[in-house]
Write a structure and sequence with these properties.
Layout: E1 2-7, E2 26-31, H1 37-47, E3 51-53, E4 71-72, E5 76-80, E6 83-88, E7 91-92, E8 100-101, H2 103-119, E9 125-128, H3 147-156, E10 160-163, E11 177-180, E12 183-187, E13 190-195
Parallel strand pairs: 1-2, 2-3, 3-4, 6-9, 7-8, 9-10, 10-12
Antiparallel strand pairs: 1-13, 5-6, 11-12
């Protein structure tokens, strides 16, 4: 299954320059946050496949008006097209905001969702907004990752970890694809296309 991952900015290739058929090959779209509601609704309408999203740190407005037709995976495990997706949105807390968390607050979110993980016998994709600590993150508090995400990867070894928040234009050293043990790590900034269950494929 071909998957489109998007995050942080609306991908012009699939939005501004959309042409009929561009989204037909995708079996699923994963949205990692900080995207307009209208954009997600556009994707789910034109692609005719599930759009699964988590909140970014700027997505407080989704609490009042979530994107119609899309699947919110934030704070739960959802099964879409047979794929188990654990969603944990938000970023490291650097100011007031509903979708910002300290490390301890994110750990409590993980503890609350673990019974679902156990019932599903793990998960195939970890879908987040923020990266994991020391994995595509920065030391600055605004773009610091969560250590608990790395612990989830080490314990459950999902096939794919998809995140956003760290824009690729922040520096040439930021990879869009990397690895953490058995897990392929994808930074979905703008967009990234990958095959599941072969996420390392081009």
């Amino acid at each position: 299954m071909k998957i489109l991952a998007v995050s942080d900015i609306e991908a012009k290739y699939y939005y501004d320059y959309y042409a009929p058929g561009k989204l037909d090959d995708f079996g699923m779209i994963l949205a990692c946050g900080d995207l307009k509601r209208e954009y997600l609704e556009f994707l789910v309408t034109m692609a005719r496949c599930p759009v699964v999203y988590v909140h970014g740190n700027h997505d407080d407005r989704f609490d009042r008006q979530p994107p119609e037709g899309c699947v919110c995976a934030d704070g739960q495990v959802v099964v879409v097209e047979g794929v188990r997706i654990l969603g944990l949105g938000g970023s490291y807390r650097y100011r007031d905001g509903h979708h910002m968390y300290t490390e301890e607050e994110m750990r409590r979110r993980v503890l609350r969702v673990l019974p679902q993980v156990w019932r599903r016998r793990g998960f195939d994709i970890l879908l987040t907004h923020a990266p994991a600590r020391h994995l595509n993150d920065f030391d600055s508090i605004t773009h610091r990752g969560f250590a608990v995400f790395g612990e989830l990867l080490d314990r459950y070894r999902p096939a794919v970890f998809v995140h956003g928040h760290v824009h690729l234009n922040y520096g040439a050293h930021i990879p869009q694809r990397s690895r953490h043990g058995d897990t392929v790590v994808i930074n979905a900034y703008d967009h990234c296309v990958f095959d599941y269950p072969d996420p390392a494929g081009k």
